[in-house]
Design goal:
The chain is an alpha+beta fold. It folds into two domains: about 100 residues, no CATH class; about 100 residues. The chain has seven helices and five strands, in the order ββααβββααααα. Strands 2-1-3 form a three-stranded antiparallel beta sheet, with helices on one face. Strands 4-5 form a two-stranded antiparallel sheet. α3 packs antiparallel against α5. The radius of gyration is 25 Å and the shape is elongated.
Length: about 200
């Protein structure tokens, strides 16, 4: 088995990796590139000798399509396990472990996304402070008719929504201030989760 990896040539971030069988060797990706099936910008091919069976073509095709769609480079390596995109990257044509600072930066992005998703869920249709309640109240007030919420209930809803925003902003700042994986993982998101 070989590995076909589509990665960002600037950062080395792995976007997609697939195992590719090597049953029937051929000249490799360079043949595909010259035949026009792979864009010329997908140049970095370090290991020739793929199989031509349909399983190989499917796996290779996925990697090549991803590379073409997102202007990525392709790396082909002999054997080995599929890379872990969270812990590894491509550097100088090889799979290498990310540095501690790279791992911290990636974990920060992941934790901030988690916070944003939790906050968004609070405003979702079935969340405790949904957007539709605010919009409905505004429409009812603008129409001059009766409202489903009293003014006090409406103000309480607005206050609760602001608390979600404030709490998520505070947690994001706390996450971004951390410089070690252990302290990043220790950031407690329960204050945001508890808002209901």
């Amino acid at each position: 088995m070989h590995l076909a990896i589509a990665y960002d040539p600037g950062s080395g971030e792995i976007i997609l990796a697939r195992r590719v069988k090597e049953d029937v060797p051929f000249d490799g990706l360079t043949d595909l590139i010259s035949a026009g099936e792979v864009p010329a910008e997908v140049k970095e091919v370090l290991w020739p000798g793929f199989g031509t069976d349909s399983e190989t073509q499917t796996a290779l095709g996925e990697v090549v399509r991803e590379a073409r769609d997102k202007s990525l480079a392709v790396l082909v390596l002999p054997g080995g396990d599929l890379p872990d995109p969270e812990a590894q990257k491509v550097d100088g044509g090889e799979l290498v472990d990310k540095t501690e600072s790279e791992l911290v930066a990636a974990l920060k992005v992941k934790r901030v996304a988690e916070i944003k998703a939790m906050a968004a869920a609070k405003f979702a249709r079935n969340g405790p402070f949904p957007d539709w309640k605010v919009l409905r109240h505004r429409d009812q007030v603008a129409a001059g008719g009766a409202t489903d919420l009293t003014e006090t209930e409406y103000q309480d809803l607005l206050t609760a929504r602001q608390n979600v925003r404030d709490t998520s902003t505070q947690l994001e700042a706390e996450v971004n201030a951390k410089i070690k994986i252990s302290t990043l993982l220790a950031v407690d998101l329960s204050p945001l989760e508890a808002l209901a």
